[in-house]
Specification:
Rossmann fold, 3 domains, N-utilizing Substance Protein B Homolog, Chain A, 15% strand, nine-stranded mixed β-sheet, 442 residues, globular, alpha/beta
């Protein structure tokens, strides 16, 4: 009979291999495969996958020292399995003997019985020789980031780069956005505590609640009825920042999966009418699901934000939220596969796309209106380099640098244009915002 412990480790190795060697998204492969293991083992499956990818470079450095030569391409899944075994030994509270026996069993379940002995020998040698105590041999192993990203972050943030890299390697907390059109954040914290869930608030973020420990959404009071949604507090700045200056027609460009659309509607209520667009028609369902759950309505269409001639009705928007496609370098702690999947060459292409969409959206904005440019990136190439050049190229554009409230001032860094929250600051994700206002016609 196959061991359940071996099964979950074997599946984890296949999923990690699909990311590292197959270029697939971790969230996507988990969603497709988590039902292969028992429900009671799914939390462990996620922990093994996220943990081994979060520490990928250090683990692979150790694997390289343990193997006399690289495994054949068709056996690379065993390299991922070894990394998972080493992660358990160094970072999880699982007895060493259980780690070894279950990881060896996983090799057999991966149909590599001839490599089970190798797995056993490598794990035992790692513990015997105390390899975990050796100093990392290079910067990627030390910081668990690719060299190019280390250099980019160091160049953009010379005084903060180590703190950013450290924060990227930590587990992200679970933040909720309370639907304050129904209940206050303080009141929702009381509801959570009545259910035995501890949570706290953050000054300057009126809708945000941080859980002390992550919870399944079905355990959250009123979640199914839209009383709360899962959303990092840094992302919650978007709606209130834009609507501080705007009422009327609002466009949420690149809107999927719909978290910010929902927040705009919760805050704006009857003061706004919302059009939410996304070029990925398959992701429109997630927008509909989010809005249906919170009981809000918007016009939702599949549309390319860079080609408004195909969908715009020629009526100007009073406000536009442009949540720009980006490297996601500010949310690495939530998505450690970003460090593996993203390439430095992507930045040029992303910046070109950001500029193209920004140029296309600007004519849709009414005079006096505001376009809020947002990314979940910490890299200047996608942030103030883009918005700063846009301001230089458009005489009818100015930056509105008034923050939503004074409490967030100490949490944000003023850039040449816009503001940056660095990952880990007040346990927030990394986000960049710039409010671009169109001058009124004189």
């Amino acid at each position: 009979m196959k061991s359940p412990g071996g099964k979950v480790r074997a599946v984890a190795a296949e999923l990690v291999d699909a990311v590292v060697n197959g270029g697939q998204s971790l969230d996507a492969v988990i969603a497709k495969n988590e039902e292969r293991v028992e429900a009671s083992d799914r939390a462990l499956l996620r922990m093994l996958c996220y943990g081994s990818l979060r520490n990928h470079w250090q683990l692979q450095n150790w694997v390289g020292q343990l193997l006399s030569k690289p495994l054949r391409k068709r056996d690379q899944v065993i390299t991922s399995l070894l990394a998972i075994g080493l992660y358990q030994i160094t970072a999880m509270r699982i007895p060493d003997h259980a780690v070894v026996s279950e990881t060896v069993e996983a090799a057999r379940q991966l149909r590599r019985p001839k490599l089970a002995g190798l797995v056993n020998a490598c794990l035992r040698r790692f513990m015997r020789d105390n390899l975990a105590n050796l100093e990392p041999s290079d910067e990627p192993s030390r910081w668990n980031h690719p060299e190019w990203l280390i250099q980019r972050i160091r160049g953009d943030w010379p005084d903060d780069w180590q703190a950013i890299l450290t924060a990227n390697n930590e587990r992200a907390p679970m933040w909720l956005r309370v639907n304050t059109s129904r209940n206050s954040a303080e009141g929702y914290v009381d509801r959570l505590r009545a259910d035995g869930v501890e949570a706290g608030l953050l000054a300057g973020f009126p809708d945000a609640v941080r859980l002390h420990e992550p919870q399944p959404v079905e355990n959250l009071p009123g979640f199914a009825d839209g009383d709360a949604s899962v959303q990092d507090a840094a992302a919650q700045l978007a709606a209130r920042w834009l609507l501080r200056h705007v009422t009327g027609r609002v466009l949420d460009a690149c809107a999927a999966p719909g978290g910010k659309s929902g927040h705009l509607l919760e805050v704006g209520e009857e003061r706004i009418s919302l059009l939410a667009i996304d070029s990925d028609s398959a992701r429109l369902a997630s927008i509909n699901e989010n809005l249906n759950r919170i009981g809000r309505d918007a016009t939702i269409i599949a549309a390319d934000a860079s080609k408004p001639e195909e969908w715009w009705d020629r009526e100007p928007f009073d406000g536009i939220l442009f949540d720009a496609p980006c490297s996601a370098s500010g949310v690495v702690r939530r998505h450690p596969d970003i460090k593996i999947l993203r390439r430095e060459s992507d930045l040029k292409n992303l910046a070109q796309l950001q500029k193209k969409i920004l140029e296309a959206l600007w004519p849709l904005l009414a005079p006096g209106g505001t376009l809020l440019y947002a990314t979940c990136s910490v890299l200047a190439a996608e942030n103030d380099d883009v918005t700063g050049q846009f301001l230089r190229d458009h005489s009818d554009a100015i930056e509105n640098d008034v923050l939503p409230n004074n409490n967030i001032r100490d949490l944000m860094r003023k850039k040449a244009c816009g503001y940056q929250i660095l990952p880990g600051t007040a346990d927030l994700d990394g986000f960049y915002y710039a409010a671009l206002q169109k001058k009124k016609v004189s």
